[in-house]
Design brief:
Layout lengths: L7 E5 L3 H12 L3 E5 L3 H20 L5 H8 L2 E4 L10 E4 L5 H14 L6 E3 L6 H5 L8 E6 L8 E6 L5 H13 L3 E6 L6 H17 L5 H12 L5 H8 L1 H15 L8 H8 L13 E2 L5 E2 L2
Parallel strand pairs: 1-2, 1-4, 2-3, 4-5, 5-6, 7-8
Antiparallel strand pairs: 6-7, 9-10
């Protein structure tokens, strides 16, 4: 099969993953149209994408002309119709099976049978989501780690009915976005989520049990195992609410104690200390997401 060039990408949902996809695709020369549920959220997402690019300019990672060129390829909408002529459509809404299934059901009724559909789930069943559409062979999972522009890896998850053609197209998209890929055959948690969650959870247990401070736990893991950041900071950046949601899903699916959320994790989430997005999780962060020294 000849490689397909991705000229236009459609993204449904402009939260952190959706915005990261938009930014990454635009920087790769791809036309992007993203959808949110109303015009206010469309404009908010664009403002947040511009803010992210301004931070890159401050770091001297890009120039003002780069920013203008990238934003010229970015278009927002609150309608489905403008998405229909894309080469591939990516769903990037919250990690909720019912909401994702409902979206795929509505998309399946509106888009053409030729359009590949991607779910960005990190733990949910691609096969179960695909059941909501006609043409289950064109549905595939792509797990982009956050922040999307800075993470080099994408897990490409085959559902039970995913065709080889759809898998090839997903690989082409990842390549166009400058990402490395691994092929994953559907199983709860896939690879990256399944491996990282018990590490974050165990680090929280160590803090809760008074073995060491959060700062020292992360310091030990950074310096001892050459990790770019410790597991507790990684959890904050992932979002502690997402960490807990994913762990509860794996706990229900697999029933193994290592996926049972630490009581300290539950306590932080219930207090609204979700990590970078709220300015406080295990650690505290400023408005640009930088760690505030303890």
């Amino acid at each position: 099969m000849m490689a397909m060039q991705i000229h236009k990408l459609a993204v449904v949902g402009a939260g952190s993953v959706g915005q990261g996809l938009v930014q990454t695709a635009a920087s790769a020369g791809i036309e992007v149209i993203y959808k949110e549920i109303n015009r206010d959220l469309v404009e908010q997402a664009r403002a947040e994408i511009e803010q992210a690019l301004d931070q890159e300019i401050e770091r001297w990672a890009i120039t003002e002309s780069d920013k203008r060129a990238w934003l010229s390829r970015v278009h927002g909408t609150d309608q489905i119709a403008p998405l229909l002529d894309a080469d591939i459509l990516v769903e990037a809404i919250e990690e909720d099976l019912e909401k994702k299934t409902a979206l795929f059901r509505s998309l399946g009724a509106m888009v053409s049978d030729r359009l590949p559909l991607v779910t960005t789930t990190s733990t949910l069943s691609v096969s179960e989501i695909a059941r909501a559409t006609r043409g289950r062979e064109r549905v595939i999972g792509m797990h982009f780690l956050r922040p999307v522009p800075k993470r080099a890896i994408v897990e490409i998850i085959r559902g039970f009915h995913t065709s080889d053609e759809t898998y090839t197209l997903a690989c082409e998209l990842a390549k166009a976005l400058g990402k490395e890929t691994i092929e994953v055959f559907e199983y709860p948690g896939f690879v990256t989520t399944r491996v990282i969650l018990p590490l974050i959870n165990e680090a929280l247990h160590v803090v809760m049990e008074g073995v060491a401070s959060a700062e020292d736990v992360d310091k030990a893991m950074r310096l001892g195992y050459e990790m770019p950041m410790g597991p507790l900071e990684f959890g904050d950046r992932m979002g502690l609410d997402e960490v807990m949601t994913c762990m509860e899903h794996l706990w229900r699916e697999l029933g193994e104690p290592r996926y049972r959320p630490c009581p300290l994790l539950r306590k932080l989430v219930r207090a609204g200390h979700l990590g970078v997005e709220t300015g406080e999780g295990v650690f505290r962060y400023d408005s640009e997401g930088k760690r505030i020294p303890q």
